[in-house]
């Protein structure tokens, strides 16, 4: 009797197991995730959930980031740190240095039209080093910034002409830049008699267009891409904010035109909001701000192209 009962239990257990297996086989199998999707998630989210519980401060941050120049300078001094942070200045200078390395690899490329890209890039470096020279916080290369600003500005102007001599000068300036990035300060002296320290406005407008199209555009193609490259989006938006401020400065063309200043102000505000949205990883807010940046650029081109 006991053997018969045991046998009946084994048979019943086996039938139950087969029934469960058959039912499981009918269920949808879990998806197979590709590596790019897996990389978007943490192995253990608990390792990253540190610090205080977040609060809804995005609106306050955006307001601070979009203050007018007069509000930023409420203590009597303009503060570049309200528009761009020190790490972004460092990152952008390194990015342009890498870009120049490719442009200056061959003399034939330079003399075949590549000089114009170098002219724009050295002009941008002059602006960035000018910001570092006036920066109101801790930032790398500040003691060398004024000299580098003058050197890059001179090289930018020389690159207007494509020749073996200007190619050599551009490479020499880039070598000095490389040495600075490695920690070796240049030994040149500042020319205190130089009174025109403005990069060509047209070059800065070109730099804005490239930043918006080639650097910012790819970061906004999807939510996943934006999340992955939000730091790049924030950095490029900060650069746009700085350029929108610079072209309003005295000495630049149209700096006394109220309509131009108003459009440049709207551009700067939208770029600042885009940077903050990227820091907050708010994709919809970033796309909205990017649209307004593009609209300001289009409005400006219609009346002030050149």
């Amino acid at each position: 009797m006991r053997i018969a009962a045991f046998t009946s239990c084994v048979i019943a257990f086996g039938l139950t197991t087969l029934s469960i297996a058959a039912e499981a086989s009918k269920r949808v199998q879990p998806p197979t995730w590709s590596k790019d999707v897996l990389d978007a998630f943490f192995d253990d989210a608990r390792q990253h959930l540190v610090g205080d519980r977040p609060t809804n401060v995005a609106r306050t941050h955006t307001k601070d980031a979009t203050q007018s120049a007069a509000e930023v300078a409420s203590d009597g001094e303009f503060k570049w740190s309200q528009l761009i942070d020190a790490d972004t200045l460092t990152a952008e200078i390194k990015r342009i240095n890498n870009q120049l390395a490719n442009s200056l690899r061959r003399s034939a490329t330079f003399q075949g039209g590549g000089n114009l890209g170098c002219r724009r890039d050295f002009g941008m470096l002059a602006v960035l080093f000018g910001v570092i020279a006036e920066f109101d916080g801790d930032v790398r290369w500040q003691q060398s910034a004024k000299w580098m600003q003058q050197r890059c500005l001179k090289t930018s102007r020389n690159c207007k002409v494509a020749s073996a001599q200007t190619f050599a000068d551009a490479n020499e300036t880039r070598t000095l830049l490389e040495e600075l990035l490695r920690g070796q300060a240049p030994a040149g002296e500042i020319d205190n008699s130089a009174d025109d320290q403005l990069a060509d406005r047209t070059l800065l407008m070109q730099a804005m267009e490239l930043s918006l199209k080639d650097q910012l555009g790819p970061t906004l193609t999807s939510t996943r891409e934006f999340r992955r490259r939000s730091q790049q989006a924030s950095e490029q938006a900060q650069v746009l904010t700085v350029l929108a401020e610079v072209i309003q400065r005295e000495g630049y063309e149209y700096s006394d035109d109220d309509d131009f200043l108003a459009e440049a102000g709207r551009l700067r505000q939208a770029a600042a909001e885009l940077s903050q949205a990227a820091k907050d990883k708010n994709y919809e807010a970033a796309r909205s701000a990017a649209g307004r940046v593009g609209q300001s650029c289009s409005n400006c081109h219609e009346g002030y192209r050149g």
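Residues 20 and 26 are 10 Å apart (CA to CA). The chain has 13 helices and no strands.
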